[in-house]
Amino acid sequence: MKIIIVFMKTSLPTTLLLCLAFAPACESSSGDEESEASTSEDDSSASDDSSASDDDSSSESDTSATTETTGDGDGDGDGDGDGDGDGDGDGDGDGDGTLPDCADELIQTLGLHDDVTSQGTVSNMVDGDDIVSTVDATAGGTMAAADNAWLYLRFGTDGLERVDIDDVAALGSSEWHIAAKRFGIRVNSGNSGVGEVQVAIASGDYASVTEVPDAASFVDDTYMDASCVLIEDSSGLPGSPAYAMGSWWGYAGCVTTTMTPFVLDLGDDRHVKLVVEAYYASGQADCNDNGMMGSGSAMETWRWAEL
Question: Among 58, 110, 128, 135, which residue's CB has the most CB atoms within a 10 Å radius?
Answer without folding.
Answer: 135
